Amino acid sequence: MIFTGFLDAPALAQLFFSSDIFVHPSELTSEGNREGVPNSLLEAMAAGLPSVATRHGGIPEAISDRVSGLLVDEADPEALFRALEAPSRSRSWKVFICVSSKSRRAFSAMTNDK
What we know:
Layout: H1 9-17, E1 22-24, H2 39-46, E2 51-54, H3 59-62, E3 70-72, H4 77-89, H5 91-112
Parallel strand pairs: 1-2, 2-3
Helix pairs in contact: 4-5
């Protein structure tokens, strides 16, 4: 696990391309605040990283569970652990998530091209 702080675009791209998985566990704050769709998650998915995140705020708008990533409930460390184990135990699952994510982006780029 790496906590880097701010990275410029080239360093961030290098980190994404050298990583195996992206994890974004978010929770509702004690004040009731929640995230929208985190840019870091979108950037990781755009880089083709298999992503694991919580069903929180706008995250389910970006990840379709078991299609473009894995979603777990907030504040459930056991579920997060199991989700992180899934790609490590199954190369086909990791490949499936990556291919699905890349295919969706490629299709979106083709259909939005003017």
